[in-house]
Write a structure and sequence with these properties.
Helices cover 0% and strands 61% of the residues. The protein has 226 residues and is mainly β. The termini are far apart.
Length: 226
């Protein structure tokens, strides 16, 4: 849990299942935007933002709950980190507004730049990231990209509509655009088909490789690959 803390930018607190405190750390330099636990709950990663010389600076922190100090801190200039996700191999994926980075606990990182494109949606799944990128603000087209845990692009597909939500599961990627859900094969980028999402659709989440949940204004429903 990250909370505000008097005299600091934020405070991270970890808890055991019986609600007793396991770990705490106070951030003096960064406002925390997201946190993630590893699978067994022994480690955490956090990302945050600050300002330096009038520019945005972001950082990724690694924590070992047996060590009171932050184990590793990696900084990034001119990007706002939005999300951090632990991978099974011990690295984390940090997603920002201008780039994403695959960061190892020793501070090594591989960056994937959006090259001026605007991110409109993203989803992280098992060490992979599905991005929806637009060439410019209010563009009518989008590019879907999957980046693997090595920081390299593994799939790309063009879409003639702006994307508002994406999801990734197994060998299926899905994108919500123009009141439709577009399904793609992750391994080849082949279009599997499309399904009506309804005009009130706000977000999607794949439940398996054939079916997606659709979040509407007043209900959750299911759509399937045709």
């Amino acid at each position: 849990l990250v909370t505000e803390d008097r005299g600091y930018r934020a405070k991270l607190t970890g808890y055991f299942p019986d609600h007793t405190e396991q770990y705490s750390y106070e951030f003096a330099d960064y406002y925390i935007t997201d946190i993630s636990l590893n699978r067994d709950g022994s480690r955490a990663a956090a990302c945050g933002i600050s300002a330096q010389n009038g520019a945005v600076v972001s950082a990724v922190y690694f924590f070992d709950f047996n060590n009171p100090a932050a184990e590793t801190v990696v900084t990034f200039d001119s990007t706002t980190l939005l999300d951090v996700e632990y991978c099974e191999n011990g690295s984390v994926i940090a997603v920002g507004d201008t780039m994403l980075s695959v960061v190892s606990s020793d501070g090594e990182h591989t960056d994937y730049s959006f090259q001026g494109q605007r991110i409109s949606a993203y989803a992280v799944d098992n060490g992979r990231v599905l991005l929806a990128l637009m060439p410019y603000e209010n563009s009518i087209s989008s590019r879907l990209v999957i980046v693997g845990e090595n920081g390299q692009e593994t799939m790309s597909a063009e879409l003639a509509y702006p994307v508002s939500s994406v999801s990734l599961y197994g060998d299926t990627a899905a994108a919500l655009a123009n009141s439709q859900i577009y399904f793609y094969t992750v391994s080849t980028g082949t279009v599997l088909g499309e399904a009506d999402s309804g005009s009130d659709a706000r977000a999607i989440a794949l439940m398996d490789e054939q079916n997606a949940y659709v979040l509407g204004v007043s209900e959750i429903r299911r759509a399937a690959v045709p």
